[in-house]
User: Fold this.
Amino acid sequence: MKEHKSDEKAGTEEAGAVAVAEEDIEDELKKEVSSLKATQSWRYPSRFTSIDTGIKNNIFIKTTVEDPVKLAMAVLNDVADTKIQKGRFLLRIIPVEITCKAYLEDIKTAADILFEKHFRCEPTTFAIVVNKRYNDNLLRDEVIHSLALLVTDKNQDHKANLKEAKKTVLLEIMKGVCCLSVLEDYKRLRHYNLAELAKPEATEAEGNQPEDTEGVKAEEEGDQGEESEKEEDDVEENQEKGAEKYSKPSEMK
Assistant:
């Protein structure tokens, strides 16, 4: 009996030792996996991160891509050429080169840096487009006037062109943040509207029409205080005229 109990006790201790060893190994494996994940996360951050803007139907994608404008242009030109819309729920794609607080002085500072890259060049044509959402602090005309002066400071021979500007200064102001870019082919690429680019062009005249109302209506549906598509087109035309007014050095104040 004593020998049997002794064997049982030895067997129990051995089983316990095996169980503890297995738990130790499992813990070590978990630690190793966690360590590897942390290392990989540090070495390989996500290339695209979604940031909530607090505005319905608008999202901001932060990226580690070196040139987001080049990436967006590749997508837009592909849709324009193939007439196949790549994103089911994506209406417009606007690349952003620089962001700042939505105050005039901050915008002027950021724009001056950006314009060194885009407008310190041979004479070209430009337009300025300001889209505001949930912001009442900035006046469009004041922003356009200030940025038009900055453009012509880089080269006084730059001219505004209401129909076919080679470069479009685009400001997307969302609440207290301003997203600023200098874009090419803004009109030809239908205001960077993927839905419109995917539509077949029935006639050349139809293809040269400004951005259709359907896309922007879907984009702005449910946004409080948003303008209709027709109003937005009117606003863009008026603000481009404002830019044209300040494109000639003799007319600057």
Q: What stands out?
A: The two ends are 111 Å apart (CA to CA). The beta strands are 48-52, 59-63, 98-101, 125-133, 159-160, 167-174, 177-184.
